[in-house]
Amino acid sequence: MPIIEVNNINKDFMVAKRETGFLGSVRSLFKREFIKKEAVKDISFSIEKGEMVGYIGPNGAGKSTTIKMLTGILVPSSGTIKVNGIVPYEQRQKNASNIGVVFGQRTQLWWDLPTIESFELLKEIYQVSDARYKQNMEIYQEILGLDEFLNTPVRQLSLGQRMRADIAASLLHDPPILFLDEPTIGLDVVAKEKMRTFIQEINRERKVTVILTTHDMEDIEKLCNRMVLIDHGQKVYDGDISAVKERFGKIRTLVVDVENGEATFDIVGAEVVKREANRVWLQFNRDEISASELIGRITQTHSIKDLTVEEPAIESIISRIYQEGFEEKLVSV
Amino acid sequence: MSYLPLYFKLVGAGVRAQLQYRFAFFMRIIGLITAYAGMAATMWVMLYRFDALGGWTFYEMLFLLALAVVSWGCCITVFFHFKSLDTYIVNGTFDRFLVRPIHPFFHFMSMKFDIGAVGQFIFSIVVFLWVSMAIDIDWSVWKVLFLLSTIIGGVLIQGGMLVIISALAFWTTKSEQFYWVAMYPARNLTNYPLVIYPKLVQMITAFIVPFGFVNYFPSTVILGKETPYFPDFVGFLSPLVGVVFFLLAYWLWMSGLSRYKSTGS
Question: Domain of B117?
């Protein structure tokens, strides 16, 4: 049985229409027009226990709105949601003890107090037993290195430290489900890597189901095997990341170092997209010409010093999907 | 789960957070005492010329002021941060209260406990003692109990008003100005005996914004003053009015919250 079930949910907001210019804003002080904004349109998906799902979409696509409905903060306009057998907006408090939530942009810790105090307060709020608390704190301290700043007030923590504390805080009560809203936003490379390792570890060791929204495609590539893509409130893709790569990853790039950077290539199915000194980038479609075939053709006329084949990054694939849309037949489930 | 021990733990954290800013803390206490002493001095200057205002002497008015200050002090200790609920909503930090397994009203209430109100307590205790000696108030047991129940009623009335103001944030997103437009002037009004105001104003402070029950009506009982337009027992109603008004405010807050959950911010 899936741990999260979402069926045909919609969420509409009434948004005040903004008038432009000074006169417009004066006018809107007295008379406001409201327009209906459909933040989420007929979205359905289900997630099995232990899955790690990337929930992706451009700004304003409806990611946060969906997360807010799953956590019980918002009530859907229509449709049904079940999280661990509970309807989140009907039994919000009960749902809260089953989930951990991290909003990357805002901390849930007590800003002015030493970090350890936030953990102690959350222990009381979630009624975590002393033994469990001690055990969890030991594990998180070790993996996340909380020791170095437990006595520092939260407001003095670096962003990386704060995120580590925040994610540990969200897992104090051993929730089976973890929602991560932009967990790596603003972090440097090292901090991002630490965060990802930790997320992987709790997913593997504790079978925590993770739903994460992010703009960082590396997060998705490294953490998730499934992604749900939404745009303008609608689901455009739901399935394997490898399937997307398969479908959209046919266009590859061959980078060759040749003796003469001015050399011309007249090969069907491949075209030069970039030149830099003696290095040439050739884009080709895997269906029309294979990499070995292409290399063979080049060696007939040029001598190659070095070469690499670049796989398309998931990031560029996704931006292509948003630009070109996704064919219906690819939407699985 | 028992909320009371949790309340003390959360509130304790709030107090420790407040004490991180020592200088601001002490300056506020000193500032409040000075402000109220200034208000008392103004009364004295005014009554120096007129002897009495609406039949109220300087000491009686001081008593009225002290009663207002003490219940306002208790009220801001527990409820003052409700006034800033709109900021929590606007910057999204309010959502935090909705992803925890405890009641959101309780959770928000226990976020802060403003011990800076010590200034109000010092001022009002000094004034109560001073006035009691000056006009010989006989503090029997029932009078003390009456005063305490009145203070509780007053805290609930003013706390209820702050809760109502904060609840408006669920509809308007910005609500702090309602405090300055409605509550602040109403409170200043009740620093003087209501009898000096037109009938309409007196009716409003009895039935609409029931601040008359915070200090004026109960003071007439203790000081034995007349209350034109109102029956004599009106002074005993403060605790009842407080409970009813606060429940009303709580209901409004909870309806606001369910609206917030369906509309977002």
Answer: 3-263
Secondary structure (DSSP) of A113-166:
SBHHHHHHHHHHHTT--HHHHHHHHHHHHHHH-GGGGTTSBGGGS-HHHHHHHH
**Nearest CA distance, B99 vs chain A (angstrom):** 5
Q: What is the pLDDT of residues B135-151, one digit of tens each?
A: 888 888 999 999 999 99
Ranked by mean pLDDT, the top range of A202-211, A257-266, B254-263 is A202-211
Mean pLDDT of all residues in A43-72: 91
- For residue B99, the chain A residue with the least C-alpha distance is A96
DSSP B195: G
Distance CA A98, CA B100 (A): 10
Residue of B nearest to A37 (CA): B263
Query: Is pLDDT at A329 greater than 50 in this prediction?
Result: no
CATH 3.40.50.300 fits A41-245, yes or no: yes
Mean pLDDT throughout A308-320?
74
Are A93 and B101 a contacting pair at CB < 8 A?
A: yes
Structural domain A250-310, CATH architecture: 2-Layer Sandwich (3.30)
Domain tally, chain B: 1
Q: Residue A330: which pLDDT band, with cuts at 50, 70 and 90?
A: very low
Is 90 exceeded by the pLDDT of residue A303?
Answer: no
Distances (CA, A) of A118 to A128, A180, A202, B184, B247: 13, 19, 21, 35, 31
Note the pLDDT of residue A333.
36
CB proximity B232 to A under 8 Å: no
CA-CA-CA-CA torsion for B90, B96, B98, B101, nearest 10 degrees?
Answer: -170
pLDDT at residue A94, as a whole number: 94
Top-confidence residue, A271 or A119 = A119
Tokens of A124: 């009381």
Residues of chain A positioned with their CB less than 8 A from the CB of B264: 13, 65, 68, 74
Domain boundaries, chain A: 41-245, 250-310
pLDDT digits (tens, 9 = 90+) for B41-70: 888 888 877 778 888 988 999 999 999 999
Would you call B16 and A13 a contact, using CB atoms and an 8 Å cutoff? no
Q: Tell me how far apart the alpha carbons of residues A117 and A130 are, in angstroms, rounded to a whole number.
A: 15
Is B13 at the interface with chain A, CB within 8 A?
yes
The answer to whether B4 faces chain A, any CB pair under 8 Å, is no
Q: In a mutagenesis test of the A interface, which of B10, B93, B99 is the best target, namely the one with the most A β-carbons within 10 Å?
A: B99
- What SS3 class is residue B54? coil
Give the per-residue pLDDT at A49.
95
Write out the residues of chain A at the interface with chain B, using a CB-CB cutoff of 8 A. 13-14, 65, 68, 71-75, 77, 89, 92-94, 96-97, 99, 101, 103, 105-106, 108, 110-113, 117, 121, 124-127, 153
Chain B residues with CB-CB distance to A103 below 8 A: 92, 95-96
Q: What is the mean pLDDT of chain A?
A: 87
Largest separation between any pair of C-alpha atoms in chain B = 60
